[in-house]
Amino acid sequence: MKPPIFSYHDPRTTNDVVALLGSLDNAKLLAGGQSLMPMLNMRFVLPDHVIDLNRVDGLSFIREQNGAFEFGALEIGAMTRQRDIEFSDLVRQSCPLLHEAIAQVGHRQTRNRGTLGGSLCHLDPAAELVTVAAALDARMAVSGKNGTRSVDFSAFPVAYMTPALEPDELVTGATLPCWPAGHGYAFVEFSRRRGDFAIVSAAALIVEKNGKVTRASVTLGGLGAAPVRAHEVERALIGETIEEKRVREICEPLRKLDAIDDIHAPASYRRQLATVLARRALLKAHARIVAGAGS
Ligand SMILES: Cc1cc2nc3c(=O)[nH]c(=O)nc-3n(C[C@H](O)[C@H](O)[C@H](O)COP(=O)(O)OP(=O)(O)OC[C@H]3O[C@@H](n4cnc5c(N)ncnc54)[C@H](O)[C@@H]3O)c2cc1C
Hints:
This protein is of the alpha+beta class. It has 11 helices and 14 strands. Helix 10 packs antiparallel against helix 11.
């Protein structure tokens, strides 16, 4: 399969990208190409212009951000390769949920090219990085002709695989707030084969004090058109001691969530996975705290 004919643009600065986006009709940004190229080849997208971000300065970085967040945050540039995130000591220490999830994204070959920004903008609801961004309440840094703005990740998906971006905007990076030292974390997923997109995934983060949960984040990927934060479960966990029977009870309401019904799995199966994977993720996160292996 061959892509449709398009004009190729190779800008060097974010301002040049914004100017191109503002002046060209029907343009697509190219990051790692791991989703865009197949979509071009299958003629799912037919852009007249492709704007390559690969030689744009200043979009690839992983750095600490102190100040705005109680426990600090990581700032990651949109063009940072998934493989660089996978091998970053800073990510492993400051954001172990991301470290655990990224190893489950595709294959090392796709992670060599695929980027954080590409995955978050492609917004496949089953994508691991999308689920992690929702779990951590990430903030997206967006640049356009009116300057820069920050978008809470909870408001970033506006429809199925559609980010809250204007036609002249690009994502330049994401800020991922850190959780306190000693928190429990786990990212678990069910996919047909290793390296496939998850059918359903679950991300859990918990903080415990004197054996009781004081803070929780539970997120399900692959269930709906965007990742689902299980706020009811999060609230029910507060003050609880994590043990299997109680976590099973707390996760039961997940069986009632709306779920996608498609060729990969019926909605009922996705709900069953959500219920089981959320429980497993919570128990794994708790086990890490008990073992002193929390972050
Ligand atoms: C064999 C295979 C297996 C895979 N398995 C998985 C998997 O298990 N889990 C998973 O999550 N992914 C998987 N992927 C997809 C992969 O992770 C991609 O890297 C990711 O979906 C897109 O990232 P990219 O950098 O390649 O973006 P691209 O493909 O270049 O772009 C994707 C989309 O995002 C837009 N975009 C890119 N960057 C920006 C930006 N900065 N601002 C605004 N818009 C932007 C593009 O215009 C395009 O619409 C797989 C891919 C392959 C080929």
